[in-house]
Amino acid sequence: MRPFVLYTLPEDTGGYRVALYQWLQRDEGNTNGSPLAPGALWGIELGGDPLRAVAEHLLAAIRANGYKPTELARTARTANSAPSPFYLDETSGVRLALTFMAVKPLARHDRIEAINSGIQDMSDEEAYYWFSKCSVGPNATRAQKALRVLLSDE
Question: The whole model's pTM is what?
């Protein structure tokens, strides 16, 4: 089972952003959640400078799940049709989601890189712990901020 799905979404400027969704079980009949990922538990989009700053880790997650990095740009160009999904395993999805949540509001490249490196250096158990704290619940936003402070030494 691959509980995470990644979509590329074309932008008017010719670039793209990505959307990452998690679901507990695929259910095509369920209309809750995103129109791209019916039944999604939650999702996050990332584009612009933060996406460019974490591109290396995004491509590593794509490769780890059997896709070619060139497929990412190719699917972004299909603006007139439904985007093709990239299905990610749990470990890759958790790390990528944690990275997206932590860097999305940031602008400083050095801080993004410090956080990105810190997440990649975490053990699987640490990544799962922070993902559980940062993804859902009333304190998710505070947990994301705590993670940013912890990993960027600020």
Answer: 0.82
